[in-house]
Amino acid sequence: MKKLMKNNFFILILVLIIVMAVMSGMSDYFLTADYLLNATRFISETSMIGLGMTLVILTGGIDLSVGSMMALSSICLGLTCQAGVPAALAVLISLAVGAAGGALNGYAVCKMNLPALIVTLATMGLFRGIALGISGGSAIPVPDALYFLGQGNVGPLPMQLVITTGAYMIVAVFIYKSNFGVYLKGIGYNEEVAVFSGIKVTWNKVKAYMLSGFFAALLGILFTCRVSSAKADYGNNYEMDAITIAVFGGASLAGGKVSFAGSYIAAIIIVLIRLGLTTAAIQTEIQSVIIGMILILAVAFNNFVASRKEIEI
Fold this sequence. Notes:
Layout: H1 2-26, H2 33-58, H3 66-82, H4 87-110, H5 116-135, E1 140-141, H6 147-151, E2 153-154, E3 157-158, H7 159-177, H8 179-189, H9 191-196, H10 201-227, E4 229-230, H11 238-248, H12 260-279, H13 284-312
Antiparallel strand pairs: 1-4, 2-3
Helix pairs in contact: 1-12, 2-7, 2-10, 2-11, 2-12, 3-4, 3-5, 3-10, 4-5, 4-10, 7-8, 8-10, 11-12, 11-13
């Protein structure tokens, strides 16, 4: 079983190599340095939405509101800047809105004992509706001072790449090296046992949902600064990408097992597929079908791994 789990990482690397080979055959520009460096902006943004989802799935939950929260944080950034709030404070307010939205999800799931699927499906509509309502559906420009978050570089590296990689590293350290990670894994494996073990299940699950909202909001900020304006329709269908990244990366939908390195590589694969198909003039609808097939195959693979575990036991 352990050998099979270790092989998952190498399978992702192999898939990545195959994807790059296929996409480079579809376009002469695909493997150029400029193209790949620019692609890291999209990879980083997609990775960010998968990071929060990975944490929630670790607890055995799910968050379908991440795309809507991305849009709401974008609108909050635009409106606060428009109201004359300093750019740095506007960013902090938008991040706080994301964490608050995640806390709402976590409270409803844990305190009201509602299914995570239903709660986050409801807040998906709620957050999107608020974003549309307070913005009137209009694009809201953000000040030039914020452009560096989405368009700037640290040396040769895009700012998004630096922020997202840093976020993954920090979260991975906390999950693998701190009690917080042990608690989340324990909750995901068996919540009832976690309760009897003295783990504060409610508080730790709420924190996982808060982090999911926080990272969705951070993505909203980075995306808004890249395109220079806030809009309420950002993040449509990002939920499927987020779930695909987590599951394809090695997370179990039953909870208790994730791979942050796997999630990051899965995000790279998905973005490269989308970019390659776009370059080849493949319709968006077909791209969604392909991503959906990847999700189904990832779930099937995880189920296969789980069945092998039961056989070994």
